[in-house]
Design brief:
This protein is α/β, with parallel strands linked by helices. About 30% of the residues lie in helices and about 25% in strands.
Amino acid sequence: MKFDVVIIGGGLAGLTCGIRLQKNGVKCAVISAGQSALHFSSGSFDLLNKLPDGSDVDCPVEAAGKLDALHPYKKIGELLGFYADEAKSQLIGCGVDVVGEAGANTYRITPMGTLRPTWLTMSDFTAFPDGNSLSGKKLLIVNIAGFLDFNTKFIADSFESRGAECRIVAVSLPETERLRLSPTEMRAPNIARALEPETVLAALLSEIKSRSEWADCVVLPAVFGLSDLAPLDYMRSVIGKKVCLVPTMPPSVPGIRTQLVLRRAFERMGGVFMLGDSVAKADLKNGEIAAIYTENHGDYGIKAHCYVLATGSYFSKGLVARPDSVVEPVFGCDVDYEKKRADWYDSSFFARQGYMRFGVVTDDCFRAVKNGKALANLYAAGSVLCGFDALQQGCGAGVSMLSALYVADKIMKG
């Protein structure tokens, strides 16, 4: 099999890069082992929330100039604002409806009910201009009886600390009660599937509406619209009040839907998505990748002009931690990590963890480095990169999308 570009990894970075290339006539294949970090999404995309010194960021584009030299944003440089706008446009064009601007962070609700700054928020959720937006509001917090991944007490306590008045109720339907027969079935995606029939959703909304006269706003777990936004639009029209969805603990319904939407867009453009496959080995000749071999295709090599490494971090095994080293397992690329294992972590769970900054070394064009030299036709994008802390800095989604778009344009120009 031959392609113009082969992308290894079907998460946010891989799909973003693939859509950009495929849209411009570059024939691509995406090799995806399966579940990606999108399945843990909280319904928003962060660009930059904090600087390395811990100071808060109001304007991500301006603050990016204060980042460390190794941060991926420094390689993108003055094009950061341009690619932030391009990322938003591409999401909307593919069917992921988002609001937000790179020039000013807004606030989103976390699964614990706290408010956290973010860049883009999906239309499922409510973006708040500041941390005081809940003051004086009457909020009805509604849970599906037996659903433990939506902690109504924590959420109510957080909202009330910001000046809101809250009431908590639980509603039940025969369809959701059947899920409670097995604790492993009472998860957000399964509830979303149970609520897909219009008659079931209508019964649930009737129950909610009868209890919501007192409230200014109805707060619900994000368990609606696994395949598309139609159930959410219907829900808002029936309840007749402002509806505020709160992300649940993983797995994430909006995150799963986002990956499905992006994959469909990529395939509509003619891209090939190889689900359930992974790269076993690669041929390297004269400083270039000549071919790769996957688990499903055995000795039948897959060839391309360029390859993009978008395998993610530790969660998706894009990086593998060994007792004395951290490695990139597909191509054996150079990884930037602390040589002393004691420097990998802090004993305080909530402190900044050193291993979060480890990742693949690249040149200024995001070409992956192996044995100190950049491979001519292998690029890296997303959370496999070194030089940033996605959790502490709040920049994971931004790094994934912006580096992927930057790489796609480098490949097309090359």
